[in-house]
Known about the structure:
Elements: E1 5-9, H1 15-36, H2 44-49, H3 60-75, H4 91-108, E2 114-118, E3 121-125, E4 134-139, E5 147-153, E6 155-162, E7 171-172, E8 177-178, E9 182-189, H5 192-205, H6 208-214, E10 220-225, E11 230-231
Antiparallel strand pairs: 1-2, 2-3, 3-6, 4-5, 6-9, 7-8, 9-10, 10-11
Helix pairs in contact: 1-4, 4-5, 5-6
Amino acid sequence: MGTAISLDLADDLPVAELDELAGGVFAWLREVDARFSTYRADSEVRRLDRGELPLAEASDDLRHVLARCADLWAATDGFFDAYATGRLDPSGYVKGWAAQVASDRLLAAGAANHCLNAGGDVRARGHSSSGRPWRIGVRHPWDPMSTCLVLAGTDLAVATSGVYERGHHVRDPRRGVPAVGLRSVTVVGPDLGLADAYATAAVAMGAAGIGWLDNLPDHQHAVVTDDARLVLPATLQPTPTPTPTSTV
């Protein structure tokens, strides 16, 4: 997927079992990379895009992803578009979806406490090895060595789409140009694939993406604009510190 992936398994299980669980996660993610990579000429996505692979002969996973991308195109008024670059590229959904599937499989296998980070798209469940809720840092859009936000919880799907690594790579599908206005969008929800796609769509919308996120049910968000403003929904606004008073 062209990114680093890390896995933290916090359950007190035998080392051999933990190794097997981790091996299954990375095997699955390598399978996803081989099937959906836009960089590998022999991937299913590239072959389908070139017309060499009929959709009827594609894998169940590819057909599922394309169906979800079509649903997301409708749900985002066309701003999540797997063809925004002129060729098939479902990456804005695939990375989060793949990590969500891996996390679901870990949970089903009895590993209820884990954190999977796929290039900044994070699925965390249960508690860390310290017994505390997971803490997930959101990278500062201008300073790669620091964070601008920290989230904590026991069941989090956190996806961030931004321009600080690849520049303005998300395109506004209506104008056919790189989207501007939002430097970083973080979306938190119950499903990492959806959160990933919603974050990408909001970046594609530009400044209008903030209002769209405000009306997105069952999700929270944090936005950093190109002019360095941090925008949070009303439910996440910090409580003002009371001004000290004195009496005479």
